[in-house]
Structure of Dimethylglycine dehydrogenase:
Amino acid sequence: MRTRARTVVIGGSVNGCSILCRLTRLAWRDVVLLERDELTSGSTWHAASNIHRLHDSTDVSRIQHYAMRLYKALEQETGQSCGVFQLGALYIAETKHAHQLRLHVAKAKLQGVSFTRFRGTRPSGCARPLTCKRRWARRSG
């Protein structure tokens, strides 16, 4: 086992592997990935296709955005599916947390992520607003 390296990536997660791949594609040769056990033995094995592009940390958002592009490109280059698929997300905020939601909207726009904004409240008499058949939100923007 090596004891020295120019760069050490800690954790063989979706992010760790994509960072290592990026560095090697930039011709970095003295790079090591450290994983506590074996790859995919932790939480990554069941979340590898669950890549969120919006995070509170802008740096993590950028890494995740890169990882999504990387895994899509790997499928095209190799003809092998990485099993990556992109799902949508629903962000809900009470008025007191609307600022945090506005930050996510701004990050989405910077990264070119499609983001539709709805405003409104549930109609009276609707016990479960997300499953209520009456339209309770209107598109704004």
